[in-house]
Amino acid sequence: MAKNRIAPTHEGVHEDVNGHNNGVVTDAVATATPTVTPIPAPIIASAIMPITDPHFPPGDVTPTDQSHRESAYAVAQAQLDIVADFMELDDDLRLFLRTPQRELIVHFPVQMDDGHMRMFTGFRVHHNMAKGPTKGGLRYHPDVTLDECRALAMWMSWKCALMNLPYGGAKGGVIVDPKTLSLRELEKMTRRYTTEISPFIGPERDIPAPDVGTNAQIMAWIMDTYSMHRGYSIPAVVTGKPIAIGGSVGREYATGLGVTYVTRSLLKQRSGRTLDDASVAVQGFGNVGSWTARTMHERGARIVGVSDQYGGIYNSKGLDLRHLLRYMVDSGTVTGFPGADAINNQELLELDVDLLVPAALEGQITKENAGRVRAKVIAEGANGPTTPEADQILNDKGVTIIPDILCNAGGVVVSYFEWVQSLQSFFWDEGEVRRAMEKKLLDNLDAVISVTVRRKCDLRTAAYAIAIERIVEAVKLRGFYP
Ligand code: NAD
Q1: Which of 319, 390, 317 has its CA nearest to residue 349?
Q2: 442, 448, 291: which is closest to 357 by C-alpha?
Q3: Residue 36: predicted pLDDT
Q4: Catalytic annotation, residues
Q5: 68, 233, 335, 402: least buried by Cβ within 10 Å?
């Protein structure tokens, strides 16, 4: 099992996951003093796809064949091209938006516990800064590549613009399986990576946040390292940090709760349905997947299948989430959970359910498996889980896809609130955070839906068109320097 175990910072959500109301993550309910019940830590992701990357360091990790893996950056560019055609976007602007503005690659040494030195490689990409400093997650995963960071940075630009946040998009990562490091090694690696990328980040420059394989503790180390170099505390350099050092209440579960808010509202508008008794399958049971499952379950949904990198489980009557979350703390995986059948990740994606929530990595629903997906609605908790070819197949089948830049935007929305609170040293209560997040998500969902009606397009095209129009407006107003 995992060599390290980072204490999670689960602030604020203090409900019984089986829906017994102990102060559930309800909809915009103010809770002045949240009590904290220990909740299982999301497990840290590890390898699923091997890697061959031109930037792989001459280190002690052997790259494996990754030729079967579709380029995330090519997918992101293809998605942009589809919308650029739809919008009849000027070619110069299209070229500008297809290209990240800055890319940093760092190779750095870390002395391991046994005394030997290991070289690591990390990245930080800034896609576009027309609307403000860049914002985006930091991923620790063995398959991180520059290509992937470019794609994720681009998707962050669209997501921030769609939410009308004063940010551009960024993304970073280190090629590492964090579960193979001790806590001390993980801290040293994080501090050295922060030092290497420190000219690139800052509250007015670029603000990292947690993503796959990173969490609040890692954000705390980044914040501390950056602050040490400057000689005073600079909490606004990261978001998703612990509340005790300037984090926001509600950030830990914001992405999952946001997926639930957006999905519930869309279901209601499209089919008059509620989440009550809706059957749900969730791929990936980390931060986003587990909080989506919990918050949907609290609103009546039946979570029939979940999976992680080791495999999946299924029970048509619904999984006992409370016990599952406890089980995960002990075992580090959902697999082997009593009272459920074992399934693999492919089978999970193809379950006959009302709702499928991909909440693991990009490129999971492709032209190979899209034809076999039976869910009526796909709520993209992960970034980039569906390729453009799969989009086409699913759209033709009448599947509703709630696109990532809309569906999982709750995380960056509350990160924005955290950044504002850190800059002002003035903190909001949990009810304010949830109310403001819900409003931001649902206002922008309404904007997207009205574009689908007006311009006769799917949700992804509408969401992208709004986001790109907003960025283009900023670019045109600022002009091309010099
Ligand atoms: P995490 O590290 O907390 O969890 C990732 C989960 O995915 C783990 O359960 C892991 O076992 C599982 N996983 C990995 N490979 C898998 C595979 N092939 N099949 C099934 N499961 C697999 O990460 P997270 O923060 O929950 O991020 C998940 C996704 O959501 C990513 O795409 C991320 O970019 C996106 N996202 C995260 C946030 C956030 O606030 N953390 C916000 C928006 C989007």
Answers
A1: 390
A2: 291
A3: 32
A4: 171
A5: 68
How far away, in angstroms, is 378 Cα from ligand 1 center?
Answer: 16
pTM: 0.89
Mutate-to-test residue for ligand 1 from 51, 152, 211, 314, highest number of ligand atoms within 8 A of CB: 211
- Nearest Cα neighbor of 52 from 175, 149, 138 is 175
Which one of 314, 328, 361 would you pick to mutate in the ligand 1 pocket, going by the greatest count of ligand atoms within 8 A of its CB? 361
Distance from the CA of 210 to the center of ligand 1, in angstroms? 10
Is the four-CA dihedral 248, 249, 252, 254 of positive or negative sign? Answer: negative
- Which of 308, 335, 405, 441 for a ligand 1 pocket mutation test, highest count of atoms within 8 Å of Cβ? 308
pLDDT in tens, 371-381: 999 999 999 99
The atom of ligand 1 lying closest to the CA of 251 is 40
Q: What is the DSSP string of 427-447?
A: ---HHHHHHHHHHHHHHHHHH
Q: How far is the CA of 154 from the centre of ligand 1 (A)?
A: 18
Q: What distance in angstroms lies between residue 416's CA and the mean position of ligand 1's atoms?
A: 20
**What angle, 0 to 180 degrees and rounded to 10, lies between the N-to-C axes of helices 287-297 and 321-331?**
160
Whose alpha carbon is nearest atom 34 of ligand 1?
383
Helix (H) and strand (E) counts in the chain? 14, 12
- Are the C-beta atoms of 410 and 291 separated by less than 8 Å? no
Low pLDDT (below 70) residues in the chain? 1-68
Cα–Cα distances (Å) from 457 to 324, 449, 451, 464, in that order, read 39, 9, 8, 11
- d(CA 98, CA 94) in angstroms, rounded, equals 6
Average pLDDT of the chain, as a whole number: 89
> For the sheet containing 311-314, what is the strand order?
341-343, 311-314, 302-308, 279-283, 355-358, 377-379, 400-402
The structure tokens listed for 14 are 């203090």
